[in-house]
Give the backbone structure.
Amino acid sequence: MSLFTHTTRELIIQLDEFFDSIEISTLIFKEGIKAYVNGDNDTFQAHLKKIDELEGKADRLQRAIENEMIIHSILPQQRSDLIKLLDVLDEIVDTAKGSLNEFYIEIPKIPTTLGSDFIALSEVSSNAAEELIPAARSFFREPHLVREKLIKVYYFERETDKCSFNIKVKIFHNMPELQLAEKAHLRYILHHIESISDRSQDAADMLASMAIRLML
Amino acid sequence: MIILFISSGLFLGWSLGANDASNIFGSAVGARMISFTKAAIIASIFVILGAVIQGSGASGTLGRLGSVNAIGGSFTVALAAGLTVYLMTKASLPVSSTQAIVGAIIGWNLFTGSVIDIHSLTQILISWLISPILGAAFAFILYHLLKVWRRNMKTHLIKYEERIKLGLVLACAFGAYSLGANNIANVMGVFVHSMNLETASFSLFSLTGAQQLFLLGGIAIAAGILTYSKKVISTLGNNLLELSSEAALVVVISQSLVLFIFSSTTLANLTVKIGLPPLPLVPVSSTQVVVGAILGIGLYKGVRNVNFRLLGSIASGWITTPVIAGLIGFFLLFFMKNLFGIDVGHAINPVVHEGSSLNTNLLIKNSIIVLLIFATAYLVYLVMREKSKSKKINEGGPLR
């Protein structure tokens, strides 16, 4: 027990900043996809840059939090779980950044008829991540509320799967004008977008069991 | 010679420190909330304070049960209790030094033909039964209050843990104080009547004869804590129930409260003043109070994950320990008296040898000073070692 008032206050601030980074990155991801689909390249580039910064910041915060927790022996019983959780949460930002980078590098051609579907998919997938953050925050203050907050994460994850499935059906059944390579490429991009909600679900599973253990 | 005679009591104290101290901070150290060194230093200091300041209450009851009136008898009784604890620990049987010493005293009563004070014995037996129940009740209530407080305060988990850590440090100190106050009777209680020590005046304070013995016993307990309790903690672990940090805090506070209640003369007088029956001042088994406290938490959580077999075997120790200690005590007294010709006491008031009393007083007083110097030096060494360890960790920089 170091004379740790300063350390813990700092750590709480770092955790909040880490959650902020994830929350903002999901919003930027949504806006980035919207800008790409609408052909607004400047805005897309600006979002790409911003998400890159946020990803770097989240990584730095994650490492700092882990180090502080280990060095000052903070939350010894929950520490390994928390470190894993931070890792999974960080993957959400990584995935969001990765997806926008795929758009930048591979410049997928999104048919005009599918534009709104892609935007809807990115929104519903990001929503899963957005709903995850309040649950993660409440793990630290009101663990008994975590499970009910996670319900929305699971809901949006299912919605993402449905939305993605419908788009894939459209691409492969109703769009004969597209080459198979184009279809495969679009499917690959869809997979990237929906993986944000998958990562959110992984984190939600972990968070739910951690909250139960904490309340026992 | 006198040191040789009280060596059995000191050995009992050492084994009590090694075994029972894990009840105070074992769960906190096991939960990685406090480092062993820090906990051991705090416990060592407070166990001595508890023994010296408040050790007389429970010791008086043991004295009434069997007023061992010859130093040879005290030595043998303490040796019998120590041997019982050692043998039963070796055989992996649950054992309590409290029950061992009571058994050994009864063995002395039977050997010398003294009348057993049924009132004191009943008080002791009832307190053995009540103490784990009281521990469970305290734990249940405290755990509930802590949970309610946690829920309503909405404190950040990190801040909450920080408070729990601070609470554990304070509880560890309180627990050690109560352990010293209550269990010193097991260690040195049997010597109080057989050694007629004069009050010793040091420059800042003075100690009565009993307090001098309690101080020596307290130092023996502290030695047990510092030298061997780490091994006991790592061997035993949390056999009954996996303890969270808050459960560890509740267990330590509950145990401390029970031990305090059964050793505080002030509290006993207070209950009489307000018209309640006096609280019995009796040495109780800290292990069994801890078992009760853990059970209390188990009951709060739903009893599915409590090891009832272990609880059963601990309850069986209530009978087996005193019986074994009584038998060992009886036979040891027989050999001491008939083989070595040592006076082990008799059923009448003791005869005090005035001539040897002065030398004994001087010896005990000097021993206390030497032990205090050694203890201080050892504590300084531990603190320095801890500091250099933390410095090394900090110099290592980020771990990733």
Chain B has 13 helices and two strands. Residues 2-384 of chain B form one domain. Chain B has a mean pLDDT of 81. Chain B touches chain A at residues 31-34, 38, 151, 154-159, 161-162, 165-166, 169, 244-245, 301, 390, 393-394, 398-400 (CB under 8 Å).
